[in-house]
Design a protein that fits this description.
Elements lengths: L4 H9 E3 L7 E4 L3 E5 H14 L8 E5 L9 H17 L2 E3 L6 H8 L6 E4 L13 E4 L2 H8 L4 E4 L2 E8 L8 H12 L7 E6 L8 H9 L8 E3 L4 H9 L19 E6 L6 E3 L7 E3 H4 L6 E5 L6 H11 L9 E5 L3 H10 L1 H8 L2 E2 L19 E4 L15 E4 L2 H10 L27 E2 L31 E8 L6 H4 L13 H4 L11 H8 L2 E4 L12 H8 L2 E6 L4 H9 L3 E5 L13 E4 L2 H6 L4 E6 L5 E5 L4 H9 L2 H10 L5
Helix pairs in contact: 2-3, 2-5, 6-7, 10-12, 10-13, 20-21
């Protein structure tokens, strides 16, 4: 029996564990990326590990999230990241060079290589055949130090594409269709691998739009084969030497298969407040809108913005609509400027933003109160836009652009014939905004520059023998990391200051939580299904750690957040019987007796005693040998230090 593409890459990079379904495996990491909202903490963690120089083939630090500099904090973080990168062997993509995923795809990604990034949309790299996975900053720090990255050997779901996209139907509609079928938790524990004749008709930017939003499925990652289309893209980026042909074997066996006929799709939109709340654009056509935002790492490519420019050329943005454009990279912006498309966008009344994440991460461009905003982004969680009652719809650049002109949600198929947009034979190549690190023999002379907002990693300690604590918060299903640790222009500058940012922890759900948790000293949190979905931000674990949270008990976890809790030394527990969720209330006194001894003995089922109402509740915590050792040590940082002292960072 042949291998899937995912299995081929995993097998080549296997560093630890058994190559069998459901087991934990450690894989060698070739490349890493960070962005500035997570990067400062990742490099503080790398410094704490004590490895002087990265051991990856390529590590890149991007500045793309916290680019709104309304105070000294963001600028100080950027300066720190730049100096740490120079000293430790990391390439530094300066502010203005573009969004990490777009730039990495253009300039650094290589088919068949492994990449982890401290951003959940790192799977964008799957568009060129990379095994690209989002992770917490501490996992990235360990990988930079030469350590393996650990995942559960995933199930592999084959999405078989046939047919051809109809005019004005786009790659965004493909991934929205997948989300409609699978939901935001349908990809948990899986890699989504795309095959079929329909793949051959999708460009690299189109493929990357699809793999980018695989994160919204909860998938470990998504991947396309590396073929002639991939080769053409890399050659146009003057990186033809990086190309290698990669695909699944003809007799590869998949755990699941779904089929999508591209020719049967029509324009779709994800309605508030979840990426899987899908309706057709034709169903909602005519809905008045207030704002349109085009760009982001999902749809900020040259082709995406050329389509928008074609629609807007010679027209004027509707008087009731604010339209903003955020190109994915400096390369894209420069090419728009040189070919005249930028002029068409400006003439129409678009507001041109810098090449950065911007509105997608809540960094500016918040809609008016109760406003309806059409966005080509990847997430529409409540409050993520910066306006708590903003109504955010996710859709394609084509649908967004035509709606900006009409002032209402409009099906782009009403425009008649669609011109064909060919990928250029050559992209403009100018890497002057990427600073290489200092040579190894000069690294000692590089000074690390720290501002007053930069605080150290929170203190941790080994797991206690017993945990007795109060339930400080009880929440429902599909709690996102935006609920736990909000983003936005006010909060993001505090990412390097855990004590300060913890004051905002869970305030979306309960503005009294930080004060209550701190006053309790030690506490536990109870949640529902798919707890921690969304961003990879480890601050959603570090802020609760700072506030004294010892365990989180839920019906089920999202993958990255569960890993981040383990890395922080917080016990991730799941109800053996989901109905027992009703047996704990906020304020109850909860005990986990002899928990350390039981974990040391390899047990994964425990009894949680609710001392307030007398209920004995069975909970599970399936910890592999390595994860068990991390929890016992008090977190990944302590575990890694111990491993280094023993000469084994894995």
């Amino acid at each position: 029996m042949g291998l899937t593409l995912t299995e081929k890459i995993l097998k080549k990079h296997l560093a630890d564990g058994e190559f069998s379904k459901g087991s934990e495996i450690g894989i060698k990491i070739d490349q890493t990326l960070t962005q500035d909202a997570t990067g400062t903490m990742a490099y503080l963690e790398f410094e704490a590990i004590g490895v002087p120089r990265v051991k990856t083939e390529r590590s890149v630090a991007y500045i793309d999230h916290n680019t709104l500099q309304s105070g000294f904090e963001n600028a100080d973080d950027h300066r720190y990241i730049g100096s740490a990168a120079k000293k430790h062997g990391i390439y530094f993509s300066r502010p203005g060079n573009g969004i990490c995923h777009q730039v990495h795809l253009e300039r650094f990604g290589i088919p068949g290589k492994t990449l982890i990034g401290s951003d959940s949309h790192t799977p964008t790299g799957g568009g060129i055949g990379m095994l690209a996975i989002g992770a917490g900053g501490l996992d990235v720090a360990v990988a930079m130090g030469g350590g393996a990255y650990y995942i559960t050997y995933p199930k592999i779901l084959n999405v078989k594409l046939s047919g051809k996209l109809s005019p004005w139907v786009s790659a965004k509609d493909v991934i929205l269709e997948v989300l409609q079928r699978l939901t935001v938790k349908g990809g948990v524990g899986k890699v989504i691998e795309y095959t079929g004749d329909g793949v051959k008709l999708l460009t690299v930017p189109e493929r990357s739009t699809i793999t980018n939003m695989g994160a919204e499925l909860g998938a470990t990652t998504s991947i396309f084969p590396s073929d002639k289309i991939t080769k053409q893209f890399l050659e146009a980026q003057k990186r033809g030497e990086d190309w290698v042909e990669l695909s699944a074997d003809a007799d590869a066996a998949y755990d699941e298969v779904i089929e999508i006929d591209l020719s049967a799709l029509e324009p779709l939109t994800a309605c508030p407040h979840s990426p899987d709340n899908i309706k057709t654009v034709s169903e909602l056509a005519g809905m008045k809108i207030d704002q349109v935002c085009i760009g982001s790492c999902t749809n900020g490519s040259l082709a995406d913005l050329m389509k928008a420019a074609h629609i807007l050329k010679g027209k004027t943005v509707h008087h009731s609509v604010s339209l903003s454009i955020a190109p994915g990279s400096k390369q894209v912006l420069n090419m728009l400027a040189q070919n005249g498309a930028l002029s068409a966008l400006i003439d129409a009344g678009a507001r041109i933003l810098e090449s950065a994440c911007g509105p997608c991460i809540g960094m500016g461009q918040s809609p008016n109160s109760g406003g309806i905003s059409l966005r080509t982004f990847n997430r529409n969680f409540e409050g993520r836009s910066g306006t708590k009652d903003g109504q955010i719809y996710l859709l394609s650049p084509e649908t967004a652009a035509v709606s900006a002109v009409t002032g209402v949600l409009t099906d782009p198929r009403t425009l008649g014939d669609m011109p064909r947009f060919e990928e250029p034979n050559e992209f403009i190549i100018n890497d002057n905004m990427v600073e290489p690190p200092a040579p190894a023999d000069q690294a000692d002379a590089v000074e690390i520059l720290r501002g007053p907002n930069i605080k150290p990693f929170p203190a941790t300690k080994p797991l206690e023998e017993n945990i007795t604590a109060t339930c400080s918060l009880k929440v429902g299903d599909n709690i996102t990391t935006d609920h736990i640790m909000p983003a936005g222009a006010k909060i993001l500058p505090l990412r390097s200051n855990i004590p300060a940012i913890s004051r905002y922890c869970f305030t979306v759900c309960d503005d009294k939580f930080p004060e209550r948790a701190e006053s309790l000293g030690e506490s536990m949190i109870v949640g529902g299904i798919n707890y921690g979905q969304g961003s990879s931000r480890e601050h959603a674990a570090l802020a609760p750690l700072h506030l004294g949270v010892k365990a989180v008990i839920v019906k089920s976890f999202a993958r990255i957040h569960r890993s981040n809790l383990i890395n922080a030394g917080i016990l991730p527990l799941t109800f053996a019987d989901e109905a027992d969720y009703d047996k704990i209330s906020e304020g109850d006194n909860i005990e986990l007796a002899n928990i350390r001894k039981q974990i040391e003995e390899g047990k994964n089922e425990f009894v949680l005693n609710n001392k307030t109402n007398g209920a004995g509740i069975k909970v599970n915590c399936d910890l592999s040998g390595r994860a068990k050792d991390i929890i016992l040590a008090g977190g990944l940082l302590d575990y890694t230090r111990e491993s280094l002292s023993e000469g084994d960072i894995n």
